[in-house]
Amino acid sequence: MSDLLERLQAIVGPDHVVSGEALEEYTHDATFLESPLEAAVLPGSTEEVAAVVKLCAETGTSLTTRGAGSGLVGGPVPLGRGIVLGMERFRHLEIDAANLMAVAGAGVVTGDLDAAAAEHGLMYPPDPASLAISTIGGNVACNSGGPHCLKYGLTADYVVGLTVVLADGSVLNLGGKLRKRSSGYRLMALFVGSEGTLGIVTEVIVKLIPRPRHQATAMVGYDTIEAAAEAVRTVLQSGHFPAALELINREALELIRDHLPAGFKSGHEAVLLIEQDGNDQEQVLLQLAEMVELMGGVDNRVAQSGAERDGIWRARRQFGHILMALRKNVFSEDIAVPISKIPEMVHRFHELGLKNGVSLPTVAHAGDGNLHPAFLFDDDQRHLISPLAAQIFRDAVELGGTISAEHGLGALKRDFAILEHGSEAIGWWRRLKDVFDPQGLLNPHKVFPEQPADDHFLDRQPGWGKKLASGRDRSEVSA
Ligand SMILES: Cc1cc2nc3c(=O)[nH]c(=O)nc-3n(C[C@H](O)[C@H](O)[C@H](O)COP(=O)(O)OP(=O)(O)OC[C@H]3O[C@@H](n4cnc5c(N)ncnc54)[C@H](O)[C@@H]3O)c2cc1C
Questions:
Q1: Of the candidates 41, 119, 232, 345, which lies 20 to 30 Å from 90 by C-alpha distance?
Q2: What residues does ligand 1 touch, defined as CB less than 6 Å away?
Q3: Do 198 and 158 meet the contact criterion of CB atoms below 8 Å apart?
């Protein structure tokens, strides 16, 4: 056994160093990228993480942190080989109801955090569709979002404290159980969304809010996707503010059809899923009815029970899992544009798909202008898909948007960062990276552009996996 493995075992114990065949689990995320690695280490405390990081610094070994591996941009794929640091043993969770806070180990599953808050009448709002599998540490690293982020905000809006292990093995305790603070630099904000490139988050403190007692949910159908997009703009500019406003196009509806409750199995070109919440049931229903009226559409249906509402959301959340199980490569766009540009953006990618004969199943956190057109393709089609995916990035940026609203840049989108942020801003990112990680050991080959942002970016991915060839699917990420 190599010296490195022996020294890792001495830190975390022999049972918590993974090697051999079991390493396969740590080679990939929910995309088609994969990479071999030396070892996976599963530390059980911040002190153990610090000791592992010090060893990596001493030996020049690169280190990639992994939550649940549900990332959609190759973030936890160990492209620098080296070691993967799995956070699955960081599962401690305390709900501090008196202070409306939760203290969670980085490996706590997002949905478990919210479920524990619910027992106290509280809510942790950021709700990625992957909430049954993804970890709070992964959510912090990617600044994840979900349907209810329209009204309640993203992960970054809830993080008030972090424990972070830096690249030299020192430990930084940031923030605390405070809802306000105006004293000094907001260092914590640097780590939220930095995708494991600046430090390793071991513990998170998040704010909680009182859980709304009532929800009302409806689906509205449209003859064209453009009409649905116009309705999004109409609602948001009307003075109403829904709790969630999601768009699902025909191709996506076909995929989730069997999961929708009876009566909601739509064959429309697009539907909008709208929800309002609050503590006054009558008001909630009234507001929903007013919004549905404004939204027009060819028909609509309001969920008549909690079971129907849950059924609709379960089907919506199944979408990503169904894509993963299709045994195709999936490239999920995650663009966002300003509210006023939503119809234009929807029109552009819809036309692009039609013109090129490519089916683009699409779900969207439409109220946030955040659209997820998904490319499904076999290995030999990537040269065809790459220019189309690049065009969507370019269109989003041209309309004042972003190439990644909630998934991060990882490996798959990093080369396009320059298009959105420009070289000056990225120069400052590099300076920050050099301050926090001068050896460049933390999650190498992620976030920072390495190749030209052109039509061949998917062809050039270094960690292209053998998923299709080996017949392995990624449905194991399903909840
Ligand atoms: C079916 C499906 C649906 C999804 N739906 C959504 C959605 O609605 N919204 C959304 O935002 N995302 C969604 N995602 C993407 C994914 O779930 C999120 O990006 C999530 O935050 C990743 O969490 P994870 O624990 O799986 O992290 P991983 O995938 O393991 O890692 C993601 C990134 O975070 C870093 N990281 C992980 N843990 C830590 C840590 N403790 N410290 C420092 N860095 C760390 C990794 O290095 C990597 O760069 C979906 C994914 C799937 C498969």
A1: 119
A2: 29-30, 64-72, 75-76, 87, 106, 128-130, 134-135, 137-139, 141-142, 144-146, 195-196, 200-201, 320-321, 324, 406-407, 443, 446, 477
A3: no
